[in-house]
Automatic annotation (TrEMBL):
Residues in NADH:ubiquinone oxidoreductase-like 20kDa subunit domain copies: 17-164
Organism of origin: Stieleria magnilauensis
Family matches, as InterPro entries: Hydrogenase_assoc-protein (IPR051349), NADH_UbQ_OxRdtase-like_20kDa (IPR006137), NiFe_Hase_small_N_sf (IPR037024)
Protein EC: 1.12.1.2
Keyword rRNA processing: no
Name of the protein in question: NAD-reducing hydrogenase HoxS subunit delta
Keyword Glycoprotein included in the entry's annotation: no
Leading EC class: oxidoreductase
A Pfam family of this chain: Oxidored_q6
Keyword field: Oxidoreductase
GO MF annotations in UniProt: hydrogen dehydrogenase activity
Amino acid sequence: MSDSAKITLATAWLDGCSGCHMSFLDLDQRLIELAAKVDIVYSPIVDTKELPVDVDVGILEGAVSTEENLQIARMFRERCKFLISLGDCAVSGNVPSMRNTFDLDDVFDHAFVETVQAQPGRPTESLPTLLRTVVPIHHVVNVDLFVQGCPPSADTIWYVLTELIAGRTPDPTQITRFGA
Ligand code: SF4
């Protein structure tokens, strides 16, 4: 922890639309209050390159659909004391898992050939290594808290973070009362 008065927070998005992170930003003026109590040490919304080894709270958005997603999920589990699966993609697979019923070759063809007008064709490099099936985060690592919603509302995220800041474990039965 870089400031002993604060909890450290790390976030990442895996296979998601970034909407759950946008919902986090929807905390609006509450972000100022949060900044006094939370140190964001790794996240797409801050300029950090390395996940520290001992983070208080980790938040993962999105499902696990590539080898890279898998490595990030494992790294978060290893380095974060409390891991949150944020949003329906992370919790259940949601939209990204819709490709699970299709052959991977058909998925690539649909993305790079059938629906492309300018220079259709599958790239020969820089393609992510897709897993055969998209899975929720808890299928690959243990998760401490599930926060449903597509995306979860800012009020929900606020409830979860303020409980953790207060040293309490958020009550899963309370999470749904804020809506998505
Ligand atoms: Fe986007 Fe919804 Fe998935 Fe969040 S749960 S990453 S908002 S599709």
